[in-house]
Specification:
- By secondary structure, this protein is mainly beta.
- The protein contains no helices and 32 strands.
- The strands form seven sheets. It has a seven-stranded antiparallel β-sheet with strand order 20-23-1-27-28-29-30, with no helix packed on it. It has a six-stranded antiparallel β-sheet with strand order 21-22-2-26-31-32, with no helix packed on it. Strands 5-11-10-7-8 form a five-stranded mixed β-sheet, with no helix packed on it.
- A hairpin with a 2-residue loop joins strand 21 and strand 22.
């Protein structure tokens, strides 16, 4: 195995594992906008207020329409209001029985109250996209007219929340934004993501757009970005320019900062680790080693590490052909003897993907001909490999210590000595 790694001082990973919160080899010293918008008629003599295009309404609900005449007390002069509800298109995942027939009715001026408000029941409509056309008439003259395209659904659509991983991103690093959605079974809503008011990406939930990866821009100062997610029961009209906005939307802030203090590890202060890869969308070393000016401490990826969130934990999924590597030594030495150190790794192991035994971590100090590695067997039993020159030793940890697809913090304390090396195993602290 050492021959495979060329000049690499340490390598991750030969086992399909999600690394979350970081590889800690340490001491390794280691809104929703308003649903109702005004729509002025061409001569601006009447303002018609109703749900904006893109709104989602239930089949058991109703559509409220109000009229405003700004310059005439008690309402302007008109005779009737007509409203039509016409099918526009089906929603593929919801419209299983086609669309309802066109509806139209007229309301006399005397049948409206002083507030000039009326409602149109949506009851009986089949789910789908409908065009609502309201006209205000004085005799045969149209004094006001609006047209809206709305979604009518049978069931609840909602965005319950947006999660950002990691909580604080490093400039240039990548993160994941994840949406928690509420929707009827078999539905496939269309999602649209915005960044500071600019359309970022869009697509159907079934195609994975309920979770997106975003790379933070490079900059020195701390910047707070606003992410917004819109949900439509189906693909909206005029999607290319985002002209139609959904009534179902949610926002969250993403903080991007280069401040090292904001990246403290859950295991302790950054300066207590010699090497610290938090793996929060980047392969930056936050340990003391990185402050010594060694360019070799910068790690690079091999294969295709993939960002993922499992059980609320964020990190890289490494499938046995991918990982990251750095040429700098991972273990501190005192003279020619390795210092006592503790290796920490927060992992979710995919034990069923290991053929026999996989390498989790390996470091090799060329100047001292010293190799240290952590392996993992298919039954979840970890092992330590230590080689010094021609001397080789392997020590297994407790059988079945790690469980398939269960998050764990694995810690191994190593105390080298001239004639004896002590190894202590810890799980979840």
């Amino acid at each position: 195995m050492p021959g495979f790694y060329r000049r690499i001082s340490h390598v991750l990973l030969r086992t399909r594992t999600l690394f979350v919160c970081g590889l800690l080899a340490g001491l390794l010293a280691c809104e929703a906008g308003s649903l109702f918008l005004p729509d002025a008629s061409p001569d601006e003599s009447v303002t018609i207020r109703m749900a904006e295009s893109g709104a989602t309404l239930g089949t058991s609900g109703s559509l409220e329409v109000s009229l405003e005449f700004p310059s005439v007390e008690g309402g302007g002069e008109f005779d009737t209001v007509s409203i039509s509800v016409e099918p526009a298109s089906e929603i593929a995942s919801l419209s299983t029985s086609g669309l309802s027939q066109r509806r139209e009715r007229s309301i006399e001026r005397d049948d409206l109250g002083a507030d000039l408000v009326f409602t149109e029941s949506l009851e009986g409509l089949l789910p789908g996209l409908y065009t609502v056309h309201v006209r205000v008439l004085r005799g045969a003259e149209v004094v006001g007219s609006v047209r809206r395209t709305i979604f009518v659904v049978d069931g609840e659509f909602a965005i319950d929340g947006l999660s950002v991983y990691p909580a604080v991103m490093i400039p240039g690093a990548s993160g994941i934004l994840q949406a928690s959605l509420r929707m009827p079974e078999e539905s496939d809503p269309y999602l649209r993501w915005w960044l500071n008011g600019e359309l970022l990406t869009s697509g159907y939930a079934a195609d994975g757009y309920d979770e997106i990866e975003w790379a933070a821009p490079e900059h020195d100062a701390a910047v707070r970005y606003t992410m917004e997610l819109e949900l439509f029961p189906g693909r909206p009209p005029s999607d290319a320019d985002g002209a139609v906005r959904s009534s179902i939307r949610e926002t969250t802030d993403v903080l991007v900062s280069s401040s090292r203090a904001l990246r403290e590890s859950g295991l302790g202060a950054l300066d207590s680790f010699f090497m610290l890869y938090r793996l929060q969308g980047t392969f930056v070393d936050d340990g003391v080693r990185s402050t010594l000016g060694e360019a070799d401490s910068i790690a690079s990826a091999f294969g295709a590490p993939r960002l993922n969130v499992l059980d609320g934990l964020f990190g890289y999924e490494l499938d046995g052909t991918s990982g990251f590597e750095s040429a700098a030594a991972a273990v501190p030495f005192l003279g020619s003897t390795p210092s006592p150190f503790t290796f920490h790794a927060r992992v979710i192991p995919f034990l069923s993907d290991i053929e026999r035994e996989g390498a989790l971590f390996e470091t090799h100090a060329t100047d001292y001909d010293f190799t240290f590695g952590i392996d993992l067997r298919t039954d979840g039993t970890p092992a330590v490999r230590v080689q010094r020159g021609s001397e080789f030793a392997r020590a297994y940890g407790p059988p079945g210590l790690l469980v398939d697809r269960e998050p764990a913090l694995l810690s191994v304390s190593v105390v080298p000595a001239e004639n004896r090396t002590s190894i202590l195993w810890f799980l979840n602290g």
